[in-house]
Design goal:
Strands 1, 2, 3, 4, 5, 6, 7, 8 and 9 form a nine-stranded mixed beta sheet that branches. A three-stranded antiparallel beta sheet has the order 10-12-11. It contains nine helices and twelve strands. It is an alpha+beta fold. The protein is flat. The longest helix is centred in the last third of the chain and has 45 residues. The relative contact order is 0.08.
Length: 290
């Protein structure tokens, strides 16, 4: 059971965050937006803060909670982030599909790993272990921090000489079993069970720290810049086309009206000569009478 000091801490946190809360059988739960965002068990001295969640095809949710706010001595509180993929409702079941004449049975799981200080739960993660070709590759922490494409290159580098890969004739896809583990799965099987892969989950800027809006804004700005450049290019092209059209028509007029053209040219030359003469005369008069 919680002592009075522990309850005071938890209740103050819940009130600060605008949550409703309840205490029952040594459990404290704070609810916000219809979600349990703080769960603490006084019996096991453990719990979690729901930092956020991402549902496939929907916006990422952030609770505003973090374990650093829960200052309870002797308790192990984790920051939790949940991912719900397209197959999340089938967790605990085995899905059967017929793929290219073969019956394929894949268990749908909830996998969990520590990633950048969070305990991440991936609901709807298919277990392809029965159909893996060759060994699982293990990438270093240094490579894990890089773009997932680097993980894939490292995976093929580690496994390309394995006998199973040499004799395999089926197209393969590198699948992240975990943040630092990859396996080779037949592509037709991998693509038949849609899921949120750990390669996507590791993109912390998009899903966990909530920078998706900024990235979308940047993309919109880029598209706007591209459209502006396109419009400017079209305007420039239109002006050039117009100029070329006027020039072409002028040449046609000169060819078809040589006498009139000659007269116009003569008038222009005479006007320019007279103008230049009057200008020079004005300059001389000005020098004599400063």
């Amino acid at each position: 059971m919680f002592d009075s000091k522990e309850l005071d801490v938890l209740e103050n946190i819940a009130k600060k965050q605008g949550c409703t809360y309840k205490v029952s059988d040594g459990l404290f739960e704070a609810v916000k937006d219809g979600k349990v965002v703080l769960h603490v068990d006084s019996n096991s001295k453990s719990g979690y803060c729901l930092f956020g969640e991402h549902v496939k095809g929907k916006k990422t949710y952030h609770s505003g909670f973090a374990k650093k706010e829960v200052r309870l001595s002797g308790y192990n509180i984790e920051d939790r982030f949940n991912f719900y993929g397209p197959l999340s409702k089938y967790v605990g079941q085995t899905l059967t599909k017929k793929i290219d004449g073969q019956e394929v049975n894949v268990p749908i799981t909830c996998s969990s790993h520590e990633q950048n200080g969070f305990r991440i739960y991936n609901y709807g993660d298919p277990d392809f272990s029965k159909y893996e070709v060759g060994p699982t590759s293990h990438i270093s922490d240094e490579i894990k921090q890089q773009h997932p494409s680097k993980h894939i290159r490292e995976h093929w580098q580690q496994t390309k000489n394995h006998e199973a890969h040499k004799t395999n004739t089926t197209p393969l896809t590198a699948h992240h079993k975990a943040p630092n583990e990859l396996s080779s799965v037949p592509t037709n099987i991998h693509t038949s069970f849609q899921h949120i892969g750990w390669s996507a989950i590791m993109n912390e800027d998009v899903y966990i720290t909530g920078q998706k809006t900024n990235q979308q804004s940047h993309a919109k700005t880029s598209r706007k810049s591209q459209n502006t450049r396109k419009q400017e290019s079209q305007q420039s092209t239109s002006f050039l086309d117009m100029t070329a059209n006027v020039y072409e028509k002028s040449l046609d007029y000169v060819k078809n009206n040589p006498k009139t053209t000659g007269t116009v040219i003569a008038v222009v030359v005479i006007a320019a000569t007279v103008g230049f003469y009057l200008y020079r005369k004005h300059k001389k008069t000005k020098r004599r009478n400063p």
